[in-house]
Amino acid sequence: MAAERYAYLRPGVIDLLKQGTLFAGERRTTRFSFADALLELGGSRSDVVVLNADVSKGMGTYTFAERYPERAFNLGIAEQNMIAAAAGMAQSGLLPFVATYAVFATLRGLDMIRNSVCYTRTNVKFGCGHAGITSAEDGATHQGQEDLSIMRAMPNMVVIAPADDVSTKKAVRAVAAHLGPAYLSLTKEPLPLLYDDTFPFAIGAAVTVRAGVDATIVANRDMVAQALLAAEAADREGLDVRVIDCHTVKPLDEEAILRAAKETGAIVTAEDNVLAGGLGSAVAELLIERGPVPMRRIGVPDTFCESGPYLDLLERYGLSAGHILRAVRTVVALKSR
Amino acid sequence: METSERTLRLKSVSYREAILRIISQAGAGHTGGDLSAIDILNVLYNRILNVSPQTASDPDRDRFVQSKGHCVEALYAVLADRGFFPSAELDTVCRYGSRLIGHPTRAVPGIEHNTGALGHGLAVAVGMALAGRLDGRSYRVFTLLGDGELDEGSNWEASMAAAHYGLDNLIVIVDRNGLQITGPTEQVNALEPLADKFRSFGYALRQVDGHDIPALVEALASAPFERGKPSLLLAHTVKGKGISFAENQAGWHHRVPSAAELERAWAELAAQRAALEGS
Ligand SMILES: [Mg+2]
């Protein structure tokens, strides 16, 4: 019954969802998907340059450096200079992609992002790995659990948190074609290969990947996988739950979310990001003004997280499919009051 | 005195008058730093930079990034004189609706980059210089830094990169007026031995009196100072230069002249003009 509810999923993914073994299937970290896409983009566009702060191994962009050494710049462990230099390169007509980890770009480099990139509106793209708590074993210094909140507060910035390999590669092509600053929030943990090539990626266009009428889970990045697992679990309880991959946090696809609120009457947001200011905040801000429905937000609580295996951390900090399922039950119950 | 030198020195007097007019009508501005930087800007825009309103988007134009963005009044005065926008617009600086806001923005013709947060310009210039080299273009990138802003670590990150990549198409000018907003640089966060620091970071360095017009022309025209190295011109200046009561006073960093002070300033500048015209 549920199979035809899904869209754009690769063959076999639905079976894995039904078995609850999604993470046992094929996976790839989206930072390497980003690096793959840059390698391809570098072949078709000679203006593409890639900058990193001595993390080309961690980000996978060493592949670009090997093929296009004159267009790859390792600026050392110096994020402020890297980001402002990228702005200067963009001012000179190049298309710079800045690759580092989310914590280092969005925190150490934030003044440069704000003023030399967003305020000056330079055409700089960011691909930042280790976002959320996907840098699980590394501990809090490397867990970029607030990048979506910080980047969302930057005027002129497009903020995208893709859920898998295919959508990440499409996002790279989309931001390359977009004129202006853009930020891609990428993972350390390998994510399940969810989508086939028909996945329709456009900046600001959320994608319904599972149809449903009883409630909607709005998720992004690594939490789309958890949302799909939660929806499948809800299905066993007789709840028919819609799942939206809201990869673009800004600009938010308001129309898709308002429609989901209206058609399903209840919303759960799911993000691997602090609850303050991320996807859940964006959705709540929209709904409270233009169509309030029962809502719950799943996200990283107001704390720094421990080290541990990724899936254990999701459980520990309330982000797993089981936690999402409980939130779905709650909003559905509130709906009928 | 040679005609060309007299012409430039007269321009500096006019620019100083324009700066004071802008600041007094706006009721805000950075008098001291504007006056220490103005002779450098004068020489850059009238003798060194390959830029003009007609070639403002020419990919081969020289680039100038004023990192000490707070001294925007000096930049506006020079850009207006060079025809990037009408001089009458100088009366609108900081007014609601004016594009001439209190720090440089790209919305103003002739300005390459939004600055004002300190410690950006040198790193941005490094990026422009790297891009120029990659694209095989012969333009040079100039950036003007305050000495106070050298406290920002990003300048030293950018200096390391400039030397690492051997960017001899990059010319960094430091307005070494010895003061920052709350007092002397050596009391706030000592910079000396500054020339040694820059040399050890890999620059080819020259020092100049930042108000000696012929010396500035000679030094800047000679860049790069050494093939394969970024150039650094350490320009020794006087904060508030040209207005006797503002000179070397940290308090004039951000001060707006009173009506009486303005009268004195006009008289001093008029005397400077008369002396030049009679020379
Ligand atoms: Mg100073």
Describe the 3D structure.
The complex is a heterodimer of chains A (337) and B (279). Chain A is of the alpha/beta class and 337 residues long. Chain A has 2 domains: 3-26 and 198-335, Rossmann fold (3-Layer(aba) Sandwich), CATH 3.40.50.920; 27-192, Thiamin diphosphate (ThDP)-binding fold, Pyr/PP domains (Rossmann fold, 3-Layer(aba) Sandwich), CATH 3.40.50. Helix content of chain A is 42%, strand content 18%. Chain A has 14 helices and 14 strands. Chain A has helices at residues 13-19, 30-44, 56-59, 62-67, 79-91, 102-108, 110-119, 147-152, 165-177, 223-236, 254-264, 279-290, 310-316, 321-335, and strands spanning 27-28, 48-52, 72-74, 95-101, 125-129, 158-160, 182-185, 191-192, 207-210, 215-219, 241-245, 248-250, 267-274, 295-300. In chain A, helix 9 links the parallel strand 6 and strand 7. Chain B is globular, with a radius of gyration of 18 Å. Chain B has a single domain, classed as Rossmann fold, CATH 3.40.50.970. Chain B has helices at 3-26, 31-48, 72-81, 121-134, 153-164, 185-188, 194-200, 213-221, 259-278; strands at 63-66, 141-146, 170-176, 179-180, 183-184, 204-209, 231-236. Chain B has 9 helices and 7 strands, in the order H-H-E-H-H-E-H-E-E-E-H-H-E-H-E-H. Chain B is 42% helix and 12% strand. Chain B is α/β, with parallel strands linked by helices and 279 residues long. Chain B has a 5-stranded parallel sheet with strand order 1-2-3-7-6, sandwiched between helices. A two-stranded antiparallel ribbon of chain B has the order 4-5. Chains A and B meet through helix 5 and helix 7 of A and helix 4 and helix 5 of B. The structure holds magnesium ion. Magnesium ion binds at residues 146-148, 177, 179-180 of chain B.
